[in-house]
Amino acid sequence: MEHQNFIDLLYNTFEENGMKDLLDDNSAELLYRFAALLVETNKHTNLTAITDEKGIILKHFADSAAISRHIPQGAAVLDVGCGAGFPSVPLAIIRSDLAITSLDSTGKKIDFVLSAKEKLGLENLNAVCARAEEYAALNRESFDVCTSRAVARLNVLSELCVPFIKVGGLFVAMKSDKGAEEAKEAEEGIKKLGAAPTSVSLYSLTCEETAIDREIRIYKKTAPTPKQYPRKYSQILKKPL
Ligand code: SAM
């Protein structure tokens, strides 16, 4: 990954997608170093299938950055099922005002996020190895925003995410272009969890001639989540709300 080519493509991609204001010299350099660390670590630890420069910039960095405009200033944000740190690590890099927690049940992924935090000096990022439905027991209603990408269908994901959100806070679900069907299926369950739909953004992200269709579905927490949720994962899967 050649440094200047990466930085140029990063700026061009963010500009092409109306997000150039999210980058400066410092954040661009940190994103380059994070990409290099991801590719290097991925040689011996399976973290991601996307390892080419363009794929990382479009599908990991621009996609993660696209939720930034939906997150209020100074918010405490939880990323459920962060994997190698998406969307949380790029978000921590481009939004130093946020206090971000990356959560994943897989130890090697959290080890990677923690090593990125240390190597890049990301003071606004924390990482926890736990299952969401268990971590919720001690951390209910303690985040302003909970987000998640590529973890589960909305009717399962909502029970993993909504209990963490303070009343008045937001559930920012990152989806591909098939979110409408999932949203319908999750409608009743999300209501039971104490949240209501507020907006849907449908958009394409592009990098040179490649485009990906994405959706951001936003729900607002309107009432505390009843104490019986989240249930055990086996029950959530067997009988989604
Ligand atoms: N969000 C990342 C991304 O978009 O690149 C990773 C997506 S990966 C397909 C799904 C991740 O969710 C895995 O790393 C898995 O360990 C994690 N995961 C699945 N269920 C979970 C749960 N109940 N609690 C915490 N992490 C979970």
What is the mean pLDDT? 97
Q: How far is it from the N-terminal to the C-terminal residue, by CA?
A: 45 Å
SS summary, helix count: 9
Helix content estimate: 40-55%
Helix/strand structural class: alpha/beta
Radius of gyration (CA) equals 17 Å
Number of E strands = 7
List low-confidence stretches.
none
Distinct ligands, ions and cofactors found in the model:
S-adenosylmethionine
Tell me the major beta sheet.
7 strands, mixed
- Shape descriptor reads globular
Residue share in β-strands: 15-25%
- Major β-sheet strand ordering: 3-2-1-4-5-7-6
H/E series? HHHEHEHEHEHEHEEH
Brief write-up:
Helices cover 41% and strands 24% of the residues. The chain has 241 residues and is an alpha/beta fold.
Entry keywords:
241 residues; alpha/beta; seven-stranded mixed beta sheet; 41% helix; binds S-adenosylmethionine
